[in-house]
């Protein structure tokens, strides 16, 4: 039981931080950051939804949102948005299911098998969340790196060159956390399924045995007059 609680809590904390990392990554603006030298007087960051410029001296930040979601955008931007939003939803629902499946939560306390199945569903959802998350963040980072390398290779200088920023790293970390928490939860479910099943059947058997014993004791303590009356009623009924 102690190991089961430990694995559940470890999976809980990994799922919590992974979901937060994915959500923060999706809705922050530093997927790409300028890779110029220290002579620059401003830091330029580009995200999935807007682009921000921060003055390095006074810290004033100005942001420009991209065009409408229905406007024409690059394939990299559109697909990364879709994959990160999918990862956010799956990790969020996976975390909520995990909360319901924890043994310390008073939800279906007399149904250990159902709670284990809830943990299994949570683990599967977290594993599925890690797939679009890692695909979107790694693909975005590789595309930025390839674009920068091609410009350097062809000696093309456009004034601003970008490298992937902390939002992209946060997306990768959240995705890996989803893989880890999902693996822990699924393994925990399979490891402790037999134990919970055995306890459930033993508890059911004990309740059934107690019910049978109570019935026998009740019949034993029935007065003889009631027993005789019952027999006579049965004979009359047959007639």
UniProtKB/TrEMBL annotation:
- Keyword Membrane part of the UniProt annotation: yes
- Alphabetically list the UniProt keywords: Cell junction, Cell membrane, Membrane, Tight junction, Transmembrane, Transmembrane helix
From the record, give the transmembrane residue ranges.
7-27, 120-142, 169-192
Q: Which family does it belong to?
A: Belongs to the claudin family.
Any one GO CC term of this protein is: plasma membrane
Membrane topology, record value: Multi-pass membrane protein
Which is a GO BP term held by this UniProt record? Answer: paracellular transport
Gene3D superfamilies reported in the protein's UniProt record: 1.20.140.150
Organism of provenance:
Taeniopygia guttata (Zebra finch)
Q: Does the keyword Cell membrane apply?
A: yes
PROSITE patterns attached to this UniProt entry: CLAUDIN
| Name listed for the protein in its UniProt record | Claudin
Residues in coiled coil: none
* Gene Ontology MF, one: paracellular tight junction channel activity
Q: What does this protein do?
A: Claudins function as major constituents of the tight junction complexes that regulate the permeability of epithelia.
Q: Where in the cell is it found?
A: Cell junction, Tight junction; Cell membrane
């Amino acid at each position: 039981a102690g190991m089961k609680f430990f694995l559940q809590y470890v999976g809980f904390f990994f799922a919590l931080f992974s979901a937060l990392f994915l959500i923060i990554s999706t809705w922050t603006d530093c997927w790409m950051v300028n890779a110029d030298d220290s002579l620059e007087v401003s830091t330029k960051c580009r995200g999935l939804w807007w682009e921000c410029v921060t003055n390095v001296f006074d810290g004033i930040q100005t942001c420009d949102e991209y065009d409408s979601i229905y406007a024409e955008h690059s394939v990299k931007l559109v697909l990364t948005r879709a994959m990160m939003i999918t990862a956010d939803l799956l990790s969020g629902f996976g975390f909520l299911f995990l909360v319901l499946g924890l043994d310390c939560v008073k939800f279906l306390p007399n149904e250990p098998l159902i709670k284990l199945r809830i943990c299994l569903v949570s683990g599967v959802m977290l594993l599925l969340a890690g797939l679009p998350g890692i695909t979107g963040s790694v693909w975005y980072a590789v595309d930025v790196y390839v674009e920068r390398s091609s410009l350097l290779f062809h000696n093309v200088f456009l004034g601003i060159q970008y490298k992937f920023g902390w939002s992209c790293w946060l997306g990768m970390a959240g995705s890996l956390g989803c893989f880890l928490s999902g693996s822990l939860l699924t393994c925990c479910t399979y490891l402790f399924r037999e134990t919970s099943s055995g306890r459930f059947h033993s508890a059911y058997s004990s309740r059934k045995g107690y019910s049978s014993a109570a019935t026998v004791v009740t019949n034993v303590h029935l007065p003889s007059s009631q027993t005789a009356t019952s027999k006579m009623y049965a004979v009359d009924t047959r007639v």
